[in-house]
Description:
Layout: E1 3-12, E2 15-24, E3 31-32, H1 34-40, E4 44-53, E5 60-73, E6 76-84, E7 92-94, H2 96-101, E8 105-107, E9 112-114
Parallel strand pairs: 2-7, 3-6
Antiparallel strand pairs: 1-2, 1-5, 3-7, 4-5, 5-6, 8-9
Amino acid sequence: MGMIEKKLRLAGSLGERETLCLFDSGASVSCIRPDIARDLARPISLHKPFRISTADEKTFMEVQEQVFLEFYIDDFLLFSDFFLVPGLTEEAIIGALTLQQWRLKLDFDREEVIVDPRAVRLRI
Length: 124
């Protein structure tokens, strides 16, 4: 499990902004603070809310909404669902599902996020 922090440009249907994102291979899903999410896109209510545990595994938060956001790494466009987590201490977290979806590699020695151009090539 490891973490790297990077400022990324997040964009949604309402606008865009530079956001400090924590790339966390120990986080299952991508999350964002509700105040930041609402500036970027209109949240969508989940059919059924779920509980998510924090790193200490003793504290749980209920997740009721999500947003779909674009983000850019090295000028590569990527996108993912982000769950709105009340009380989240980070501005945003890029979790394992998003890392796997885009085959992103985390270089902890250089504190870099590596994008494989072949993995982000979109096809229909």
